[in-house]
Amino acid sequence: MKSTVERLSPTRVRINVEVPFDELKPDFDRAYKKIAEQVRVPGFRPGKVPARIIEARLGRGVVLEEVVNGAVPAKYSEAVSAADALTPLGRPDIEVTEIADGDKLAFTAEVDVRPEITLPALDSLAVSVDDIEVTDEDVTEGLDNLRARFGTLTGVDRPAATDDFVQIDLAAAVDGKPVEEATTSGYSYQVGQGGLIDGIDEAITGLSAGESATFPTTLVAGEYADQAADVTVTVTAVKERQLPDADDEFAQLASEFDTLDELTDDLRTRLGQAKRMEQATQARDRVLEALVEAADVPLPESVVATEVESRTHDAVHTFDHDEERFAEFLAGQGQTREEFDASTLAEAEQSVRTRLVLDALADSQQVQVSDAELTERIIMQAQQYRMPPEEFVRRIQEAGQLGAIYADVRRTKALIAAVRAATVTNASGDPVDLSDLLGDGSEGAADDVDVLEVPAPEDGDGDAADEPESTVDTAATEPEPTRTG
After folding, report:
1. DSSP 124
2. In what order do the strands lie in the sheet with 2-9?
3. Which of 68, 87, 198, 431 is the most buried (most CB within 10 A)?
4. Which are the contacts of 478, defined by CB distance < 8 A and separation ≥ 6?
5. How far is the C-alpha of 250 from the C-alpha of 242, rounded, in Å?
6. What is the distance between the alpha carbons of residues 448 and 435, in angstroms, rounded to a whole number?
7. Is the pLDDT at 458 greater than 90, yes or no?
8. How sure is the predictor about 74, in pLDDT bands with cuts at 50, 70 and 90?
9. CA-based angle 68:70:75, to the nearest 5?
10. What three-state secondary structure class fits 477?
């Protein structure tokens, strides 16, 4: 087999392949066997029809088509493997250019490839992160949150105010017609927490038990989703949360400590640890931003297009792919479809650019992913989707996503190496030591993978998936069945 690579652009190549018919004998044998199992010829058992009978009955063209469809994907893979530093991205566009029976098979394959990326020296990267400061107000807020967990609700005879707990009845109507699915009674709600119905907090505030208010809103789910409705809320009870006194007795109730001072000292330590993790996350984000900005990254058009398609699909999926409803939603957000498309394209380009840079970095660092690291990531994601690991693995294998998860772990390890090598200072100009959070970087150190996971790209406006879906990745994929002629 002969193959040559023709560079069409920094991100796209054409691979020209010629295969002598002598190399296709295994493919002819396979084709004859497959066809023989599918045809019925009197006097021959299924699968035992001779090649000459198959060609006489069906014609040589049928055999050649079967040979080509089977041989081209394999020969394409061979040509890719033979090419130096060629990493295809996405499916190739294959065209058979010549079938000289008995002589040769020729075809071309155009495919986007990972571009060559020149990375900056990691030790040249310098970023600044916020100072770590745990204030008395932070500790007080943490203590109050802990006290709230042990608080009690007591009924009060006064109008509802922010942070009160109320029991309410709800009834909605669209154009005067009651909406049964938006009707409920005895619902417990904390005033000011949001997330229930737009306008409800303003309507409840100031109502006492037994009083009602009607307010306009837009329904967000069900048959009447995105439609204007009038909602009547009736308060049946108002309760306020009474917190236990912050004293030694509370410290003994809520913790393993004997005194309030010990408890507050522990809260201060824990808040400091949390702020250090926030600082590490900030360092990750800023090192990644600096790394991507410093690299010139040509973008493969097909990969960007696939990313845009995926993000748009996720956004419109919430509205059952009803473009009119989606347009109304965008209008409510003060955005046109053209602005949404432009924003989605920009986000897709940045996402692809980031993955390509991290892949190039992982290559330059010769990053490997151990079985333990891959398993740990799978278990972590299974927990996020609230699935048993075995079920999660089955689904990602069916969706062909295992390679994408492997790639994400590899990118995370590469990014950790970049953070470890970069100069990180705080706002005061002092060096920030993240070594205890980053691990030692040794192969198989699964803890490294979990500390600073590569941030996921921003989603579209759609809802979160209920189960893992196919993700856009820069990994190579197999070619589709070949077109002949």
Report:
1. G
2. 2-9, 12-20, 104-113, 88-100
3. 68
4. 73, 77, 91
5. 14
6. 10
7. no
8. very high
9. 80
10. coil
Q: Give the strand pairing for 228-242 and 165-174.
A: antiparallel
Whole-angstrom distance, CA of residue 247 vs CA of residue 119: 57
Q: What is the pLDDT of residues 196-239, one digit of tens each?
A: 889 999 999 999 999 999 999 988 877 887 788 999 999 999 99
Distance CA 153, CA 472 (A): 49
Residue with tokens 């996350």: 281
Q: Which residues lie across from 213 on neighbouring strands? A: 233
Token pair listed for 303:
């990969």
Closest CA to 315 of 302, 299, 327: 327
Strands 126-129 and 423-426, sheet pairing: parallel
Return the residue matching tokens 């390509």: 356
pLDDT of residue 170: 95
Is residue 385 within 8 A of residue 468, CB to CB? The reply is: yes
Q: Which domains does the chain have, with CATH numbers?
A: 2-113 (3.30.70.1050), 116-131+301-485 (no CATH), 152-242 (3.10.50.40)
Tell me which DSSP letter residue 42 carries.
Answer: T
Digit-coded pLDDT (tens) for 353-400? 999 999 999 999 999 999 999 999 999 999 999 999 999 999 999 988
| Rg over CA atoms, the chain | 31
Q: Which contiguous run of DSSP H or E holds residue 168?
A: strand 165-174
Question: Angle formed by the axes of helices 260-294 and 136-149, to 10°?
Answer: 110
User: Tokens for 459?
Assistant: 């989603």
pTM > 0.85: yes or no: no
What is residue 407's predicted lDDT score, i.e. its pLDDT? 93
Residue 110: strand pairing partners: 14, 93
